[in-house]
Design goal:
Length: 454
């Protein structure tokens, strides 16, 4: 499409979760190693890569919209090669190839390490290779893979494993990403050290299920051991844990979360529901009693821990009584952060064939009821933080005159939780300052600096 050395610009559109974002960063890093140049403006890119999510229907719809938007640049701008990568082509490559002829190449999830060779081949004057490249989802990144961070330079995600073996009845991820595969601890530490040397202060550990980490490796290294080893890296300030399965949270992990100042007292553990019959139909390990006992243990061992969860409403068989049980649980469990998703019937999953379907309008009504309850809980819990002094990672300027900077405390993860608006002077992104909380809103905090930046 272009002669070597001409027009070697690319733009990556990364959709979906942070796990997918890491794949996008690896692809960008590999392209840059090959001499390609990233551009923030897709209109200037000769090659556009849309890295897609296909977890649920809204994610697929978002991906299709992004693909069609990118396709317009083939007519109106510099784009000569449009590549669609990730979970959507892994699942629907044949149908996509028929439906969207504007796309030049569809790549499955195992093609991440080959992106530079694929783009170089597409640059040939007469490309005659296949338009679809989808194989078994067996890719597992390592510390040798370059990454072009797409997060602020002081924060990075670290993918400690790939794939999932839980086989929740509503989830297609094991089919798209393969079985659970953990990276060796020394490889993870090596990448963490590289990221820290680049200026990363907050490291966020991710996987489809972080609590499954190490169970497939010789010696079965634990997630808690990995956290403690990472906390030994001097340059890192914060380590945060996402995507933990409640049935696999061990006493060792709980102690570790409250035993080191670098490890944020924060736990993201999607429980999905509280009713035993719904949990069994979801093929979730554990039951409502174990979930309640776990919450009691967590708060007993780590009183200041911030707990995040996610729920699914409208799952087949969720009667009015079962939903009311879930709503009552939310009101009594009092999570710091909570997300709710209406059930989506995904082809290829066991839950797709379940009867007792619930209308979309009713699912949305139930979602809104839970989020309304959570808004009240969040506002009350945050109001209790007033007068506390919180270590706060500055993200940048807020655009406000009264609180000109914005950051996050150890209890706030990027993108999914609220933020902390900060009053101060000369605060640079990536700095951690002590902030006295002066006010709270439904999801956000407000405060003023009480010491100099670290």
């Amino acid at each position: 499409m272009t002669r070597d050395g001409e027009g070697k610009t690319f733009h990556v559109v990364s959709l979906g979760c942070p796990k997918n974002l890491v794949d996008s960063e690896v692809m960008a890093g590999l392209l840059m190693r090959r001499g390609y140049r990233p551009t923030a403006d897709p209109r200037d890119a000769r090659t556009i890569i849309v890295n897609t999510c296909a977890f649920i229907l809204p994610a697929k719809e978002e991906a299709i919209e992004a693909i069609l938007a990118a396709a317009t640049y083939k007519k109106t701008a510099s784009c000569r090669c449009l590549i669609v990568a990730g979970c959507l082509p892994q699942r629907h490559s044949i149908e996509l190839a028929r439906a969207i002829p504007e796309v030049d190449l569809f790549l499955g999830v195992a093609e991440v390490p080959h992106i530079a060779e694929r783009v170089a081949a597409m640059d040939a004057p007469q490309y005659d290779g296949p338009r679809v490249r989808v194989g078994p989802p067996d890719f597992l990144m390592d510390a040798a893979h370059p990454r072009r961070l797409m997060t602020p330079p002081h924060t990075a995600y670290l993918k400690i494993a790939e794939g999932c073996g839980n086989r929740c009845s509503y989830c297609i991820i094991p089919s798209l990403r393969g079985p659970a595969r953990s990276r060796a601890p020394e490889d993870i530490v090596a990448e963490a050290r590289k990221l820290a040397r680049r200026g990363v202060r907050e490291l966020i550990l991710i996987a489809q299920d972080t609590t499954a980490y190490g169970r497939d490796l010789p010696g079965r290294p634990s997630l808690a051991q990995l956290l403690r080893e990472l906390a030994g890296l001097e340059e890192l300030a914060w380590i945060r844990l996402l995507y933990s399965h409640p049935a696999k949270i061990t006493p060792e992990l709980i102690r570790t979360l409250s035993g080191d100042a670098k490890i944020c007292p924060y736990l993201d553990m999607p429980i999905q529901h509280i009713d035993d019959e719904i949990l069994a139909a979801m093929n979730r390990k554990g039951d409502g009693q174990r979930i309640r006992a776990l919450l009691e243990t967590l708060r007993g061992e780590a009183p200041d821990i911030a707990l995040r969860t996610s729920l699914i409403v409208g799952f087949p068989g969720e009667t009015k009584k079962k939903f009311e049980m879930l709503l009552d649980f939310v009101q009594t469990a009092r999570f710091d952060h909570l997300g709710v998703f209406p059930f989506h019937r995904e082809e290829g999953t066991a839950a797709a064939a379940l009867p007792a379907r619930i209308p979309a309008a009713e699912k949305e009504r139930r979602r809104e009821l839970i989020m309304a309850a959570q808004a009240e809980i969040s506002a009350e819990l945050l109001s209790r933080r007033r007068h506390a002094v919180e270590a706060t990672l500055i993200e940048g300027k807020s655009g406000r005159t009264d609180y000109p900077f914005v950051g996050r405390t150890r209890r706030q993860a990027p993108e999914i939780d609220g933020v902390t608006f900060v009053r101060g002077k000369g605060l640079r992104p990536g700095r951690i300052v002590s902030v006295r909380i002066t006010a709270a809103a439904v999801y956000d905090l407000f405060g003023e600096v009480v010491d100099n930046p670290s």
